[in-house]
Amino acid sequence: MRRMKRIVPALLCTIAASVSAQSLQFHGFVTAREIYVKAQPSWTTGGFGRFDVGAANADDHRYVNIDVAQLGVDWTPWTWFLVHADGLARKEQSGTIGKHAGLVQAFVDLHTEHLRLRAGNFWLPTSRENIEPLWTSPYTITFSALNTWIAQEVRPIGADLQFSPNFYITLGGTAFRGNDTMGSELAARGWTLGNRLSVYNEVIADVPDTTRPIGPEIDHRIGDSERLRLQLPERAMIQFARVDNRARLLFRSPPDQPWRTKFNVISGDAGANSPTTLAAEWLYGTTTLGFPRGSFQLHFDTAYVLLSHKSGMDRWTARVERFKAGREHGHAYTIAWLRETSPHVRSGIEYVRSTGNQPLAPEPRTGGSTITIELRYRF
Question: Looking at domain 24-378, does it have CATH number 2.40.160.10?
Answer without folding.
Answer: yes
